[in-house]
């Protein structure tokens, strides 16, 4: 099932070129999508039959006419995987000489939940004089509370998968700071539930900036695959429904600038394109606008 949040926070199922409103079937409250999403994740097995029936008869919208929002409306935490492709380590060392170790030695890091954004929201660059890069990744959302779950069991705890952009300001600051600005984790275009993905560790992934292919890789080259990332994330730390894990990026990482369009496509998942703009700082401390 492809599950989307769209327009005025409606819950939809994507079927070919249509998005069907299944809010009623999922007891979805458009005024509180955050709580409704957690209810959906935790009760999906009981809800999915009614959702599928509603998808056959409910109000349908042409896919080109809807505004897709982040399919995870909010999250408690985002665990991200650094240097999880050997090819990415090689290119980072070639450009910056700053990736001497891989995920096997440095484990995961946290991104701010406030960096989460949707597949039609712009990326807002906080600096005009700092290099900011795109990183194409497969991401997924946790479906059940988990602690000390081994990789062999991890697939039973994953609700679904989506494409994810990990946007990164280059510099000497800690990863968490450089990757946590508002709009620095766009995800989408929807969630593909885990039961529809045969093998998340063998999916082709491509990223374009404007019309130029920048990244062309596959999750089969992950050092820690999706399930091993899950194991590391909940090693003596609790994962909760709605938490997000980003699995890392292959080689081809490069800079983006205001005016660019960044497109990501992952096999069996989908694709989305976001605009890149400069963030405009308002007089209110810490506030930004597009």
From TrEMBL:
Organism: Sporosarcina soli
Keywords: Hydrolase, Metal-binding
Lineage: Bacteria, Bacillati, Bacillota, Bacilli, Bacillales
Domain Fumarylacetoacetase-like C-terminal: 77-276
InterPro entries: Fumarylacetoacetase-like_C, Fumarylacetoacetase_C_sf
Range of residues in the leader sequence: none
Protein name: Fumarylacetoacetate hydrolase family protein
Keyword check for Hydrolase: yes
GO molecular function, one term: hydrolase activity
């Amino acid at each position: 099932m492809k599950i989307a949040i769209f327009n005025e926070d409606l819950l939809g199922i994507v079927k070919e070129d249509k998005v069907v409103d299944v809010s009623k079937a999922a007891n979805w409250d458009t005024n509180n999508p955050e709580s409704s999403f957690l209810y959906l994740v935790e009760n999906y097995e009981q809800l999915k039959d009614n959702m599928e029936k509603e998808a056959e008869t409910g109000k349908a919208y042409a896919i080109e006419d809807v505004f897709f929002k982040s399919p995870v409306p909010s999250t408690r935490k985002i665990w991200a995987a650094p240097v999880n492709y050997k090819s990415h380590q090689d290119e980072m060392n070639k450009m910056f000489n700053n990736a001497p170790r891989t995920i096997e030695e440095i484990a995961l890091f946290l991104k701010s939940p406030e960096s989460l954004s949707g597949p039609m929201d712009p990326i807002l660059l906080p600096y005009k004089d700092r290099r900011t890069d795109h990183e194409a990744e497969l991401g997924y959302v946790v479906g059940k509370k988990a602690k000390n779950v081994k990789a062999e069991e991890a697939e039973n705890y994953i609700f679904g998968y989506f494409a994810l952009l990990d946007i990164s300001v280059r510099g000497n600051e800690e990863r968490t700071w450089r990757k946590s600005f508002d709009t620095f984790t766009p995800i989408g275009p929807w969630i593909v539930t885990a039961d529809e993905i045969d093998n998340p560790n063998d999916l082709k992934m491509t990223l374009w900036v404007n019309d130029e292919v920048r990244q062309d890789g596959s999750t089969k080259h992950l050092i820690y695959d999706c399930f091993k990332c899950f194991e590391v994330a909940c090693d003596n730390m609790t994962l909760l429904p709605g938490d997000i894990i980003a699995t890392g990026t292959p080689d081809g990482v490069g800079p983006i600038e205001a005016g660019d369009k960044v497109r990501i496509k992952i096999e069996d998942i989908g694709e989305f394109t976001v605009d890149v703009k400069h963030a405009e700082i308002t007089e209110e401390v810490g506030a930004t606008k597009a």
